[in-house]
Amino acid sequence: MCTCTHGEGDPLITLGCDYNPEQWPAEVWAEDVALMREAGITLAAINVFGWSETEPRPGEYDFKNLDAIVELLHENGIRVNLGTGTASPPPWLATRHPELLPMAADGTRRYPGGRQGWCPSSPVFRSYALRLVEQVAQRYGAHPAIALWHVSNELGCHNALCYCDESASAFRRWLRARYQTIDNLNTSWGTSFWSQRYGDWDEILPPRAALSLRNPAQMLDFRRFSSDELLGWYHAEAAVLRGHSTVPVTTNFMVTAHIRDLDYWRWAPAMDVIANDHYLDHRLGDPAAELSFAADLTRGLAGGKPWILMEQSTGAVSWQPHNLAKQPGEMLRNTLTHVARGADTICFFQWRASTQGSEKFHSALLPHAGADTEQWREVLELSGALGRLAEVAGSTVEADAAVLFSWESWWAAEQEGRPSTAVDYLAQVHAAYGGLRELGVTADVVSPDGDLDRYRFVVVPCLYLVSDEQAARIETFVERGGTVLVTFFSGIADQDDRIRLGGYPGAFRELLGVSGEEFFPLLPATTVTLDDGGTATLWTERLRTTTAQAKASYVDGPLPGVPAITRNRFGAGTAWYVATNLDKTALQRVLGEAAGVTTGHPGGLEVVRRHKSGKSYLFLLNHGAHEIEYPATGTDLISGERADGCVRVLPGGVRVLDEEQGERP
What we know:
By secondary structure, the chain is α/β, with parallel strands linked by helices. The protein is built from 17 helices and 31 strands.
């Protein structure tokens, strides 16, 4: 774990940044480091995109500037998160070897000029890149400034899926290892459909663009392969680093709403510490709720341990249609949401706003206008707040509720040829998670393969793809006394995307005590009414109860009188089924009833607790426009104010209470 200390070695919440000194003349570096010290920066990521600087020509290495930066940071007490520099190759490499450029599904090459312009399966790229990693690791592996190794950068952000001939060969090798025989592959892929049966491995290609719908099992396996291929690249770099250093190794995940190509449940065990990049996405209806979800999912990947926020922004980003600046106080509130949900290291991209390049309008800790700015003063305020939260470092979040999340199910649920393209997997996950958040329920986000024994309540949103083992694990959880709530389009297919026969929702039919025979998706802008007063959109299904009790049925729409919400006793536990896309209020009401919590939680108030050594730290984050009173007793670590029975949280404000001396409500 990357940790920093102060005083006599006490832990603290680390504040860091992504620093790109190669973009600036040398005379600026001393000013940068002095301002970093003023801002309380104790960790700086460097050499993330340094390949063309450190190897300007093939086999010719120049570390003079990188040496100087490492020493300057070290002399000023700033530890280094050292990038391997391999994220984007220099122009000379693609000029010499255009065959390493990635290929899109339509067979066209993607040219250099951006970043990540390389095929993950390219042996040529691997040879050159690992040679660079060897040089970097050998030179800095024992340097006392190095706190963390940063492999590449945001692996798979742009080049996760490559369809070139090298990728095709690697895909076939991956398939051989997975299926052993061509007959096994044909069975798993259902190749009897449309005369797709293979007689030899060499006949198999990546699922390139076709004139019709493509084989969904092939497309699913190609995504699995592509995720594994980039993970293999991470392992290759990490092996070189570990040959020269004992410093922890990681790479920055992209647990966020618009990136879905990597199965981080498979990646997480390979990391010495989990790190994530996250930016508010204003294309979503509730960006702050998605931030909370991403933080909880990152904590799930970390196994509940503290993790690193490797990148976030002080204000606007530069890659959304409308790049909105943050309101006063929003940066502090966003940051403390990550801290509340388990981050002990908080870093920003980037330190100094660039004057050129694709991200010149991306915000930074030090803006274009310099240090005499409100933004810089907010940075100093944030630094002070994190310093006062030092004792929170090392504590963990405890939750008795969980939301199941699966990248594989995300891929499969949104394949070609589905019942309704309006059903968005992540939107369904966010809706379920958001309902719990509005109820004040902290939930872990866990894999369907994870341990459910620690929870009392589990939500299974839109888990279309589920293995027999995963389904059995959920059944056992309920049988032993747990409560589960499953939403529509769950349990439909097995791990090969093969539809489960006998009625929907497939793997969960007996658990839920229902049987469905036909989906009835709704057209856009169509709303149906339920007899409990709720409304729904997107989806209905012809459903009958077997052992379940109908809690609400449709009043109108294509299926009047048909159950829409059911409840079933199963063993010592309870299983709920929501067979439609409920409106926000109705979903929150059902979640509250199923979870056994009140729906009277103050709207807009986010409540999370971290625990350590018998102490409890209560985070209260007011995302609303009105002051909120919340029952609590303790001392606010940020302001020093004492609360006896009630704490007031200003609009947009935050409170972090040490509850050690008080009683929890």
